């Protein structure tokens, strides 16, 4: 259909971009991770970066934090997203469509802006609330390790739930109307219908949402930067911020790159696990 | 039976009130930002939760100038539109060729796209930036090229699915009418997947418009700042002047929210499609 | 069907010229100006942007063929912004440099300034802060800053404590306790308004306990692969004092809040800052600092010679990337450091204390500035060394570790261990070893 030179003409730009912007930096990144590069000079130091990483308190802590954050966010976001989806698919009218829009809007705003919005809420609005209600625990959220973590989780849930809601909506809408009606006619309550008819159909939606949330939380940077900037004492510094600071503040670029490679391995593993489960799900 | 209906009415009213409450809580962060951006510093200090008696729009004037908003907006637009156009053109062409020729090369390229999607940006960020830096090539054009490289994989895969749905007989018919291969692609097959083109444009535009990390490494200099970059700087400079920072936030959010309200249906279906594929 | 495609083509048509212009303008920034030479000035102190702008305006009026473009970056973004300028080949002509690590990073781009008139007048003690590792002079100090406790004299007066009578650590502790005992009557939230959220302030505080070791030799401080713990006991004592008597929660207090709310409103007796807070405070109320502000040193030697640390955090350097701009850059800097007109703006509006020899202190607008100049030119004067710590050490290592210590999340021994290890590791990587 296409002549040979035409075929290559069509695919060449895309391939060139992928090689130039992803593959070459990726390979050069693997090499860099075995050096002590500071951005200007570099020497080959073998596996030393990787050895040091596993003794580096800040690395281990930020990795663990990212993991904890991902698990908590996945649960919350999917829960909220599903509830939202059920609310707005309840009936098709203007009211529910407005709700859908409202739930989705936070997803449009960029991470930096979101971080600042919530910084204002956690510092100023929470402070005012704590004074008005006499609830001291609302004070100083972003200067504490635990509440700082929950601050990030709340921000991320607010941002992502509307997005995940859309995934659930599309699966909910795909459920045949008559099977729902049949269930209701059989005398099942709405709750029973949800558990017996809707939930089983949502299994693939859950897998998708799970990994979308996971992938996004592993790459989280801007929200982290604008909300807590890692503080207090680097306790809310997630893995992306760890990489950025190590590379561009400390200029330990080889070391930071080693972290980047570890991040890649983790993300790739997670994706293979997802693939495995979704294939398995399709077969059964 | 009458009782049951009455019950149902009450139920749905209760449901409506509850849902509205949830939505109010959800939208409140935006409300609080807008409300406080219209106050003086003193007003924010005395009660940040609602309006106080010190309405002002001066903050917006100050923030608009400090953000150099027109300029930042044009930069954001240039970078976003430039990248999106390039991404769309490059990935549509590639995906078309891949679906039309089921040769080894095609499946190799397809898997290359799938595999590179696994690479998190943070894993290549340092070498990518230092590579362009060593060529003294860090500016808006460089950013557009980088954005394209980073987004092509997903877009090719999205397009791939769409082109598969276009029967080859369509190409052949056009060919018989004497159209060149490029014409066939541009005039016949590409228009057939317009919804997907919309999806690719919307997904990438949303991502790139809001992007901060890569621009901060590539165009972090006078005359090239995008809105998120400028906003971040402005926030640092305003110190504890929240009224200005909030006015800046509102300004920065307005364009995308307006655009969303205009294209709501399309945006939501695109986002869904991008998530599920 | 055709609509979308038309839209795309339209967009392409709109965007292409922009792109071309963008590429072009990036390559030749001053192509259109008629004979006028434009030089770039990179400033890392956002709080004095407008004053610099004023100086530039005055200078441009006198030299109509010179145009100076000021770029300001700060709040922690300065280093990254400078890096991106250098790596994109757009090095500024005049560069504000923060410490020897930054100088070392760009040393190949920096011009030797040995024979400039501005340099000849520099306080000799401060010269090593503008040198490369092999003692090539590339920077002029911006001003003379003092580091210590900024005190609210009004609070001290009401508490019945004479700050001038405090001569050693024991007396300092006594004063703190005396003020603390009257906390409620004085309406204080705490004796100290320690801005624990701020890793930069913690870092400059740490210099109180490390600077003495290097005796003004900034190159030696920069070369050092170890963090000096000679005064760790006193450092620990001060931290405990701060922890006990500062506004709580200690890590939630931010820089601006500590100055503009807590200190200005008399809710704390002192904050760990220096004379750079003067313009902010006087900006809130004219001449506020005149009667209300004083400074107290840290007492680390206790032999009567303890004074405020004085030095310059920032140095002005000139890039050698664009030879035709060098003379203009030099002339401008010389002018700033010698003409009366420029100095009036610098001392009265920036509220800087000049880092030059034989300056007539009568010209300085306030007592604190006079005291600083006097301390800074005395023979016991010590320069703080925190700017010579490796890149990232402030915000990634010592700041967070001290924060942890302040809230009881780490032991002193662990703090020492981590700080020492990381100092060595960062230093080694950054010096390419």
TrEMBL record, chain A:
Membrane topology recorded in Swiss-Prot or TrEMBL: Multi-pass membrane protein
Major localization class: membrane
GO biological process, alphabetically ordered: transmembrane transport
PROSITE patterns linked to this entry? ABC_TM1
InterPro entries under this entry? ABC_transporter_permease (IPR051393), MetI-like (IPR000515), MetI-like_sf (IPR035906)
According to the lineage, what is the superkingdom? Answer: Bacteria
Task: Report if keyword Phosphoprotein is assigned.
Answer: no
Q: Which residues form the ABC transmembrane type-1 domain?
A: 63-274
Membrane-crossing segments per the record = 7-31, 63-89, 101-121, 149-171, 202-221, 255-277
Tell me where in or outside the cell this protein is found: Cell membrane
- Look up the record and report any one GO term of the cellular component aspect: plasma membrane
The similarity annotation says: Belongs to the binding-protein-dependent transport system permease family.
What protein name applies here?
A: ABC-type sugar transport system, permease component
Species source reads Ligilactobacillus pobuzihii
Automatic annotation (TrEMBL), chain B:
> What's the superkingdom here?
Bacteria
Subcellular location, in the record's words? Cell membrane
| Keywords of this entry | Cell membrane, Membrane, Transmembrane, Transmembrane helix, Transport
Q: For this UniProt entry, what is the primary localization, expressed as one broad class? A: membrane
Per UniProt, residues of the ABC transmembrane type-1 domain are 73-263
What's any GO biological process attached to this entry? Answer: transmembrane transport
Q: Which InterPro entries match?
A: MetI-like (IPR000515), MetI-like_sf (IPR035906)
Regarding the membrane, this protein is recorded as: Multi-pass membrane protein
Coiled coil spans: none
- PANTHER family named in the record: ABC TRANSPORTER PERMEASE PROTEIN MG189-RELATED-RELATED, LACTOSE TRANSPORT SYSTEM PERMEASE PROTEIN LACG
Give the family per the record: Belongs to the binding-protein-dependent transport system permease family.
* Name of the protein in question: ABC-type maltose transport system, permease component
Upper lineage is: Bacteria, Bacillati, Bacillota, Bacilli, Lactobacillales
From TrEMBL, chain C:
What InterPro entries does the annotation carry?
Bact_solute-bd_prot1, SBP
Which Gene3D superfamilies does the annotation name? Periplasmic binding protein-like II
Could you list this entry's UniProt keywords, alphabetically sorted: Sugar transport, Transport
* Name of the protein described by the UniProt record: ABC-type sugar transport system, periplasmic component
- Supply the source organism for this entry: Ligilactobacillus pobuzihii
